Amino acid sequence: MKAKESAPSQLSTTPVVKLPNAVTQALGAKLRSYRELAQKSQEQLAHDAEVERSRISKLENGHINPSLLTLATLCHCLGITLAELFDGVTATLPPASQGGELRRRNQAHAEKIPAPSKAIDTDHRAKRSKA
Fold this sequence. Notes:
mainly alpha, about 50% helix, about 5% strand, two-stranded antiparallel sheet, about 130 residues
């Protein structure tokens, strides 16, 4: 996939995924339910996972997009797996090239290019076998 750079004027008008959104809210709700099931306060979970308490609140409300490593640490502290945390989270977001919003302002835009041909250049293979 070939990326093209956006002109500076396009950056200010290009829509960027807003938080919270369906994905971050669904994940946050799951995190909250597992935290409550573990009978931990936000403060206890934050302490166990070595993150700020406000970060737990923001995660549960879908206001931040956590890293995979943060989620893995939270899952460890809750005694669950990443698969359990994501179970039932069905929301998805299309890429910008398919009408979705950019995930960040400096994201490269993908150009639609045809898929590479699967035809094999037999002449090229013949040259390699002679070498």
